[in-house]
Amino acid sequence: MEDKGFTVSFDAATGVATLTMAMPGKVNKINADFGNGFIAAFAEIQAMPGLKGIIIASGHKDFCAGADIDFIYGQRDADALYAMVSELHAGFRALETCGKPVVALLTGSALGGGYEIALACHRRIAVDHPAIQFGLPEVSLGVIPGGGGTQRLPRIVGLQASLEILAQGKMVRAPKAKAAGLVDELCPDAESAHAAAVAWIAANPRAKQPWDDKRFVWPGGVQPDTGDARNLFAAGAAMLVKKTAGAYAAPEAAVKAVYEGALLDFDSAMQVEARYFVGTVVSDQAKDMIRTFWYHRNAVNAQANLPKIADARVQKVGILGAGMMGAGLAFVCAQRGYDVVLKDIRQDALDKGLAHIKGQIPKLAKHLSKDDQAALLARVTGTLDVGDLAGCDLVIEAVFENLDLKHRVIRETEAVLGEDAIFASNTSALPIADLVKASIRPANFIGLHFFSPVEQMPLLEVITPGTTSEETLARALAFGRQIKKTSIVVNDGYGFFTTRFFSAYIMEAAQLVAEGHSPLLVERAARAAGMVVSPLKVFDEVTLSLAAHGFEMRKRYFDDDLDQAPGVRLIRKLVELGRTGKAANAGFYDYTSQPRSLWAGLADVVAELGASTPTETGIEVLQDRLMLAQVLEAARCLDEGILKSKADAEIGAIMGVGFAPNTGGPLAWMDRRGVRAVVTALDALAAAHGPRYAPPASLRAMAEKGERFFEAV
Amino acid sequence: MAEAYIYDAVRTPRGKGKASGALHTVKAVDLLAGAFAALRDRNALDTSLIEDVTVGCVTQTGEQGSCIARTGVLVAGYDETVPAVTLNRFCGSGLEAVNGAAAKVASGFMDLVVAGGVESMSRVTMGSDGGAIWDPSMEFDYGIVPQGISADLLATLNGYSREDVDRFALRSQQLAGAAMARGAFKRSVVPVRDQNGRLMLAEDELPRPDSTLEGLGALKAAFEMIGVQFGVDALTQKRYPHVEHIHHVHTAGNSSGIVDGAAAVLVGSREIGDRLGLKPRARIRAIASIGDEPVIMLSAPAPASRRALKKAGMTPGDVDLWEINEAFAAVVLYTADQLGVDLDRVNVNGGAIALGHPLGATGAILLGTLLDELEARDKQVGVATLCIGGGMGIATVIERV
């Protein structure tokens, strides 16, 4: 038993037995070993004479990390999984109906299945530390809780509160967990938590779960099968669909499991959960999401094949340009403890940027003490003088996308920097190699492409032209880790990966509109496919004029037929009409209308440009077009070596520019569709609309050989 | 095939469906029993001849649960051999009860059946009976939305503006007011009295004939909050992706009123009428129900009417008068548009917007109103039709004899 990591101790003085989980490795996770070990240890405890109560504790940092993802990922057999889950349910049920008080001693995080163990205890006593989290984040991997979470949590915190946690996969930090009802007691440290557990056992010798009491009343004020409950579920389901456009199966399954389970006695309710759990686990969507959000994300964050350095040797960061991006970056850096010099050429722009940083404090740093907030602000200095950048270890330029301008700021900045300083460009498209030409220290020069709003967006695209030294890359990656970004490292080339990929999305939307498809259907099709933001809306946000500027820059790097595409002509025309986007209150949308609507004049402009009525249209056709254009760009970036790994493609697409998370990413989308079918569809598009849709040779080769990007599960 | 005739139709006046309404203190079963008793007394019926009683009631829970139809029969003092069944086809229940009775008679299986409906909306809250329709699966998988959203969607898709629906509501109020002033409902309406014989309500309580377009226009859109803030509008996008925004045009003023009421209709064969010396008032020429797309939900009265008219060998042009239930103003506008029927033959005495819609009873009430007006105008053919939750429609074609 000990070899599986479950130890049992007994304190005869108090009659309290402690079951300590310390599975081999660093974490406790629920797999076959867990089931056997836990049940055997529990059986041993139950046989102890003089037993008054039980503490479930962890010998690791975390209480329990939840289900073994390898196990979940491999499951395709619904019958076998149902049987296994039923056994787990029986084990948890035995725990909570053993007749003795059982306390979960939460000295570390308890997530997913780990938190479900705690839910099956009679009391949850936690250490009050912000690094400790609780919750049921299963839906973020495309599955729902399978250890009773969808049934116990609603019966503990109430229907409404549980729906929010379950459908959003919300995690709550310990200091807030008591108010949220996720734990019963908070203690300052492990010792006091243990003492509280012992005391609670002494005071509650005959503990049982509230739902095992015949007079059980649901907490939270809403009883199942009442008008209030029906309204709650109706509104909850509607809000969910509004957010997800119906593209995600797991949160819907969670709501269904809560709704149906709440109408039943507890043991029957567990069968309902088991059915929905099994249904999500064996689904394609779960496999695609687990592959990307677990395996790929872990692989990318591990940075295994990249140069590693513990200390970035960065204390002071200079930011050039106090716009949205520059000011946001300054905030992020200051938040992570860096001294920041924010430089602009205009006082009003600088003032605006500094005001933005100040404005972020109540939104993003409200958990800090007044002193810490003041210190954060004090770390940022604004200046108009390039000389003030002296002493910066890293300078990130976020000035306008103009090669000459960038060359000028590179020259004047490098002149005041030390030999060891890194100069990074946050250009979203210009090849870093073209910028390096102005640098006196090419080995210290790198591309660091952030995403807006940088405070929220988790990705950092690191671009290394051949001139960048390994050390510079290693320091840049260490800096990225320090500011809590997930970095992908790509090769240099116009638009790198993410900008090319994102442009393919919004340009295909413009192209579809230019071909005469309904702009509203284009928007709806994108959301129904799982895209985080609809393309014309986001086009307006990035501004059409910026895109038009991009076409001009792009021409120097790509020799293709995009420039003649109707979509490009449409954008140019809209810019000409002054419809440059959201900032101008006029783009694809009319921002003066209430409620905000697509611009009614769009159809006339499209007709003027010569569009005819498309022979085939509708949500499915448009979804296909939008997705194909994007996956094609991903395939090209792999083909051209811009992308160095398939995991980077998936992570960069989803975390950088909001590609449909439900698909697992563009490559997973191609696998699901079948590479051969993708190539056939692209060939048809190329024949109809031009060679810019032609698949690259490597994709064609994959199709011919019947290959996939990722191994099928 | 035997034929089914309507011998008589009675109803209670409709009381406001709230605690201050005149019928709020009357038990639902008493409303129903009152209608049963009136039907018996007016026609000097030997109730032992009644072979079945079919009653529409939508919210069959609480005091309206457990087959209120049979309890109503007993309370009314009908012969104990009279059986009864309560049915639920949502808002079509009252007409379904009549249609079912007609089918039993026309098939020759039965000779004399009482049909009717009851709903005390002030005493039994609409929706309080729960149901599978409320399962979130129906929202996820079908995009089912509350009726008001469907009504607003119907208006949006067909370009009915807020003014269009308000004007229709005003018309309903004015026509109902005029009808009451000239006693158009007198033949059917039986006053409700308490156990001591004291009068509780003699006439429909809800109408506001002095309504104005300005007053109606000032009312708040009833479904905007759940549609926009609670995100319910988004549920319709799966079926109606081409609708950018739903225009929330329906209000308490241009939707059917919440009321209490009951109705009863005597349906029988020609032979039983001859035997009892009763004069048939109309023949039930055809009946039909139909399903339609459940998100838009309220679009089926037109196809139901067409199906019934086709069975009767008629077209919409053959119909002298229409009763199209005013669940929402847009439903009547849409149904009339679809059928190509001029509004001057539709709901000529107003409708549920002014008079109220006691869910389970309305269908039976509409048929009585229709028959009374055909007689008053000496016209022949009428159709009563209703939209129904879950995306259904029902229609009955009658012809005077």
- Mean pLDDT of chain A comes to 96
Strand content of chain A: 5-15%
Task: Spell the H/E element sequence of chain B.
Answer: EEHEHEHEHHHEEHHEHEHEHHHEE
How many E strands of chain B? 12
* Count of strand segments of chain A: 21
> Can you summarize the main beta sheet of chain B?
10 strands, mixed
Number of helices of chain B: 13
Low-confidence stretches of chain B: none
Shape of chain A: globular
How much helix is in the residues of chain A? 40-55%
Which two chains form the greatest contact, residue counts included? A-B, 30 and 25 residues
Order of adjacent strands in the largest pleated sheet of chain A: 14-13-12-15-16-17-18-19
Radius of gyration of chain A: 28 Å
Q: What's the mean pLDDT score of chain B?
A: 97
Describe the structure.
The complex is a heterodimer of chains A (713) and B (401). By secondary structure, chain A is of the alpha/beta class. Chain A has 29 helices and 21 strands. In chain B, strands 1, 2, 3, 4, 5, 8, 9, 10, 11 and 12 form a 10-stranded mixed beta sheet that branches. A two-stranded antiparallel ribbon of chain B has the order 6-7. The longest helix of chain B is centred in the middle third of the chain and has 20 residues, at 162-181. The chains are: A alpha/beta (713), B alpha+beta (401). At the A-B interface, helix 9, helix 10, helix 20 and strand 21 of A face helix 4 of B.
